[in-house]
Write a structure and sequence with these properties.
By secondary structure, this protein is mostly helical. It has 12 helices and no strands. Its EC number is 2.7.8.26.
Length: 270
């Protein structure tokens, strides 16, 4: 009975991860508690995988149905809809705070303001334009018969969401007593390792489903991991140096920027 209860607790945490990170029409409502929030992070890579597969399937469809440019806009629109713009909102708030070049406490106050400032809008527009241009390049390449870039889009959200878990664990929280991100303070190293294993398994199974050989499989896994760590650690360290730690908004910003870096990597190396 005890094992069943533990299993149900983890299942509830997994459903909470989908409820929190996506706008998928789920037929239930999970009550958030600190424990549920913490355990839900283990499932973040799986949530990313579901988002990625939906994007990949939609990408293949629009690649044949419409020209590359409107197809890229539609695909990016779906990406935003699937997440409810959650991470973009974090990126805008982070940009408003850090690019204000104010003292730390004032930066954090600016980030709490529900109103979006000029720097947040500018960074958001640049982010969407860059992401759209990368998707356009992939769709244009797919129209010529080269689908490898578009197929690997499914893996991108896996790793950006895994790094959010790593960031929660390895950088201090800038607002110890307030903010949604404070609910994640109990995330342990075990959660990070478990979510990493889930990210690795999801990536490997997807690559095997594509018929990849061992060389392609391991080069893809190690490549995604390396780019994620390189960009994620650099960005998290910079943001933490400005704010004295990370916040819920900065986790979203990290996700957005790592996704873009991984898309750029796919185009550059494939």
């Amino acid at each position: 009975m005890r094992h069943l209860r533990i299993g149900l607790d983890w299942l509830r945490a997994g459903l909470a991860a989908f409820q929190f990170l996506t706008r998928l029409p789920l037929p239930f409502q999970i009550d958030y508690t600190e424990r549920v929030f913490q355990r839900s992070t283990v499932w973040y890579p799986l949530v990313g995988f579901v988002i990625g597969v939906l994007l990949q399937l939609a990408g293949v469809g629009v690649a044949y149905a419409v020209p590359a440019m409107p197809g890229a806009v539609l695909l990016l629109g779906l990406w935003v809809v699937l997440t409810g713009g959650l991470h973009l909102d974090g990126l805008m708030d982070t940009a408003d705070g850090i690019l204000s070049h104010r003292p730390r406490e004032q930066m954090l106050e600016i980030m709490k303001d529900s109103r979006v400032g000029a720097m947040g809008v500018i960074v958001c527009v640049l982010q969407l334009m860059l992401k759209c241009s990368l998707l356009y390049t992939m769709l244009d390449t797919a129209k010529s018969g080269q689908h490898s870039q578009l197929l690997l889009v499914a893996i991108v959200p896996i790793w950006s969401r895994w790094f959010m878990v790593a960031a929660i664990r390895h950088w201090p929280y800038a607002r110890p007593s307030s903010g949604l991100g404070s609910l994640f303070r109990g995330v342990t190293g075990g959660y990070v390792v478990t979510s990493l294993l889930l990210a690795l398994i999801a990536t490997m199974l997807y690559m095997l489903a594509l018929g990849s050989d061992n060389a392609a499989l391991w080069s893809t896994v190690l490549g995604f991991l390396a780019v994620t760590l390189l960009c994620g650690i650099g960005l998290a360290a910079y943001i933490s140096s400005k704010l004295g730690g990370l916040t819920g908004d900065t986790y979203g910003a990290l996700n957005e920027l790592i996704e873009t870096a991984l898309l750029f990597t796919l185009i550059h190396f494939l």
